[in-house]
Each structure stands twice: as C-alpha cells, then as structure tokens.
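The records we work with from here on pair a chain with its fold. These numbers are not coordinates but entries in a learned vocabulary of local backbone shapes. To see the layout at work, look at the sequence and tokens printed below:
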Amino acid sequence: MGYTISICGKGGTGKTLLAGLIVRYLVSHKKGPILAVDADPNSNLGEALGVVPDASIVSIVDEFSGERANLPSGMTKPAYLEYKIEESIVEADGFDLLVMGRPEGPGCYCYVNELLRGIIDRLTKSYPFVVVDNEAGMEHLSRRTTRSADTLFIISDYSAVGLRSAKKILELAKELEIKIGEPYLVINRVTGDLERLRDEIENLGIRLIGSIPEDQGLAEISIQGRSLATLPERSPIVKAVWTICESSIDKDPIG
C-alpha cells in the first residue's frame, strides 16, 4: 500500500507550492515512482510540476456521458471509464500526474468525487508515494475526497486568521473520522518572527513541522510562467520544504 501525503488549507496559502516541492523532493531522493493527484478544481499542480495533462477525470466523465452507446464490445461502463481515466494519467520523469478538473456549469461533484476516491484507493497500491493537492478550504473533507492520509500537511499563511482556518480544517477532519497518521502544520510566506503567533500555533494542537519564507524567486518564476523545477536548490523555499520533508516523511521507516 502506498504512503499517502495530503496537503490542505484555505485558498491562497500555498498548497500547490508545498505539494509540488514535496513531489520534487521525493523524485530527487529516489522515492518514486510517485503519483501526484491534483484534486483541486483549479488544477494548477501540473503547471507547478512542468507538465500539461491532456484530460481530467471531469472531462472524461463529461465526454463519456454522451457516448454511452459507444462502449467497446464486452466492456462494462465502469471498467471502460476507469480505463479512460487511467489512460489520462500523465507520465513524467519520476512521477505521474492525475488531474480531477472542474465540472462544466453548476453540476454535482458527487459522482466525480466517488470516482476519484475509488481510483486513488486502487492506484495507491501501485505507487510507493501518493501526493494529493486538495481543494481549498474544507469542501473536499465534507465530501470525503480525502478519507485517509499517512501524513496530512495543513498549510496556513503568516497570520492569526490563517491559523484559525487551519484549526477548523483539523477539527472537521476529526469530526469526519478521517484516518490521519501524522498531522502537521506548515506556515507559508513568513516574513518575521513566529513568536508573535505562538499562542495561535499552540492552540491548534498539532506540531508545527516548519515554515516557508517569503521569497522573491518564487514571484519571478510565476511571472515568467516557469515550473517549480526551475527553482534552484539554494532557494530558501526549496531548503525549507526539504527540511520539512526530512523531519516528517523521511522519519518514517518506509523512507
């Protein structure tokens, strides 16, 4: 069974940044093959990793809905749909990418979420590590897109409001009885001393595994449309995420 690393947090806190650099860490440390799952409808993980997916689960489901009569002979609808979804997985250097996508119009996510859960459950058996970049906020938890995680990173920005949002996410995960091996807090875009947030951090009740500093280098690659792979290893952001991984993922015996 694969080791699942799930990243969640409110919008704009840097979930995709953390997910992308965790994938990069695992690849560079020969932990692969890794399955990167973009479960955020905004679908930015591919860009962060420098790969372009041809299709998403949602686009396949939408297309399939209009082609029910064109099933290959002898293949059931669920089997054919799963085949098409697995065919959409992008194979890159050291990792594969699966994208959920965004539904067209005000449709229900329920069927797509159920598909994603089932596929992730099966695919985790084929990959040593699975990294899931979740939807912003708590919707993915209430719909149980995330049902379990060996490591759960809750990321917050450098503010008391962000930390309170992180606490709500953790509380909801506990209410829904989501199986979490180790939950960790990560604070992003830190520009000063964490001491002023000590009370809020301690109130969360989970371990602060590390912080990521504000870095102009990240702004530059965003402006130029480059992937996180172009950040040099000397970058303060890369160094910070490496330290986080070494203190959390690599401490596990499977590492």
